[in-house]
Write a structure and sequence with these properties.
binds flavin-adenine dinucleotide; alpha+beta; 18 strands; 18 helices; Alpha-Beta Plaits; 5-stranded antiparallel beta sheet; Uridine Diphospho-n-acetylenolpyruvylglucosamine Reductase, domain 3; globular
Length: about 475
């Protein structure tokens, strides 16, 4: 059941009736990555922090569950909503308020997309220091709330590193103003940091202050075939150790991902490399373009002579470079074999090859009909492991999760790298999370959102008791 009409009327009074979308309205709109995102059948689009505060205070008083949404590109089910809840879209908070090239800082609304900020920063030779495939839609609020990583995190950190300050509205409607633009700010406990990676369960991020970085001087990009993950890691070590080269991207692809993408993109010239078990996309910068390309070719030749790499192609022009990136970012394999299971893990580089080998072996022993597809950000050991089969296996997430997730902590890794817990990894968190840490998470949730209205049922299995509309944990 969607919320009653008198509540819808009250909400219209708070944000304006033009900014309330009902189920009929939402039916014609794109719900984003997860078809369940519009499940609530009711969405409001506040214009500013004041309206966000008014909506939250109203919902808190009536115990209405509120699901914050940005670009709806999240991959862990964190933006899923259900009947009886309200979707709070931050899309109208889309203004870049300041962008100061001198201090290299920007202050922007939570609804600003990563691409919009990147374009504005590029005009000053700067970059947000974070980049990911969903750049056109992912918003600053969503990126902060999932503590997103992406392909540059091994250089500039995840969102937690990029955020200098933020403004958020708590469940009560109180505004937390911590929007400083300085790196050094020791004013007691940095409680605003709790909002980073909280996936909308502790407050709604409304404005963000970010530190920008110098834009990349891109010089050379290569797609490189390797026989196994150990060789891929060795290639990463060599690129990072090369004094004359600065590694900009070190992306990992299994051959089956690359072959599916080649088929979808018609990228014939990349097919010989995609025939390999694994590929690494290497992008580097250096002092000048020609010398950098030369140094990369030399590095690859030495690695080839040492049996580290196989076939390799250095992009000859921008179009070819873009095709290489599309090969990495296209999820053709998911279209060919829908209903696969996505796991998002990180592993220290010294244990990565062993982990992947063990994972593959155990999956094959468990069920020989399962296939493994891997893409990832190799620079920081982040692997997106997709397990699929000829037919959809969506309902088997919990069955497979222990094979992929258990044992990572002992390696110093994580079962949840950059996409967040959302709905998807709640059971794994409950099973593998440190009990003291989980108890603190519950206590903090209870303190900041005593009625459990904020993103009910996400992250913690048992932190939604008071929220209306939520039927299960
Ligand atoms: C093609 C593709 C590639 C991707 N690549 C990467 C990658 O390389 N690295 C990576 O880290 N992620 C990646 N992602 C997923 C990534 O988490 C999201 O792209 C992004 O961080 C979410 O932003 P969003 O605005 O779409 O948030 P949504 O999907 O709208 O929301 C995500 C979560 O944040 C919460 N939320 C959203 N806005 C707010 C707010 N203002 N205040 C409080 N809570 C809020 C939601 O409730 C939900 O829990 C990728 C996704 C896609 C589709």
């Amino acid at each position: 059941m969607c919320l009653p009409s008198e509540i819808v009327a009250d909400l219209a009074g708070l944000v304006g009736s033009a900014h309330v979308r009902d189920a009929a309205d939402l039916a014609g709109r794109d719900p984003g990555v997860d078809p369940r995102n519009f499940g609530a059948g009711l969405l409001v689009r506040p214009a500013d922090t004041g309206e966000v505060a008014a909506v939250l205070a109203y919902c808190n008083a009536r115990r209405i569950g509120v699901v914050p949404q940005g670009g709806r590109t999240g991959l862990a089910g964190g933006a899923e909503s259900r009947p009886g809840e309200l979707v709070l879209s931050l899309e109208r908070l889309d203004r870049i308020e300041t962008l100061d090239p001198w201090s290299r800082t920007a202050v922007a609304g939570a609804g600003v997309t990563l691409a919009a900020l990147a374009t504005a920063a590029a005009a000053h030779g700067l970059s947000p220091g974070i980049d990911l495939g969903a750049r056109a839609s992912a918003t600053l609020g969503g990126l902060v709330s999932t503590n997103a990583g992406g392909n540059g995190a091994f250089r500039h950190g995840t969102m937690r590193t990029r955020v200098l300050g933020l403004e958020a509205v708590l469940a009560s409607g109180a505004v937390l103003d911590a929007l400083g633009r300085v790196r050094k700010r020791n004013e007691g406990l940095a409680v605003e940091q709790l909002l980073i990676g909280a996936e909308g369960t502790l407050g709604v991020v409304t404005r963000v202050a970010l530190e920008l970085v110098a834009a990349d001087r891109r010089a050379a990009t290569a797609l490189v075939a390797v026989e196994d993950a150990a060789r891929a890691v060795e290639l990463v070590r060599r690129v990072r150790a090369a004094g004359s080269l600065e590694a900009l991207a070190l992306e990992f692809l299994s051959g089956n991902h690359a072959r599916a993408a080649c088929r979808a993109l018609g990228a014939r010239e990349l097919e010989p490399i995609a025939a390999a078990p694994y590929l690494v996309l290497v992008e580097v910068a250096g002092v000048d373009e020609a010398a950098t390309a030369e140094a990369l070719v030399e590095l690859l030749a030495t690695a080839s002579a040492a049996g580290i790499v196989g076939e390799a192609l250095v992009a000859q022009h921008e179009g070819q470079r873009q095709t290489m990136w599309r090969l990495r970012e296209d999820w053709a394999i998911d279209r060919e074999r829908p209903g696969g299971l996505w796991y998002d893990v990180s592993v220290p580089l010294d244990g990565l090859a062993g982990y992947l080998e063990r994972c593959r072996e155990q999956l094959a022993t468990h069920d020989a009909s399962l296939d493994v597809v891997v893409i990832g950000h190799l620079g920081d050991g982040n692997l997106h492991v997709t397990v699929n089969a000829e037919r959809p296996i969506s309902e088997r997430y919990e069955e497979i999760a222990p094979i992929v997730a258990d044992g990572l902590a002992a390696l110093g890794g994580s079962f949840s790298a950059e996409h967040g817990i959302g709905l998807e990894k709640r059971a794994t968190l409950a099973r593998l999370g440190d009990p003291t840490r989980l108890a603190l998470m519950r206590a903090i949730k209870g303190l900041l959102d005593p009625n459990g209205i904020l993103n009910p049922g996400k992250v913690l299995t048992d932190a939604l008791a008071g929220a209306r509309g939520r039927r299960d944990g």
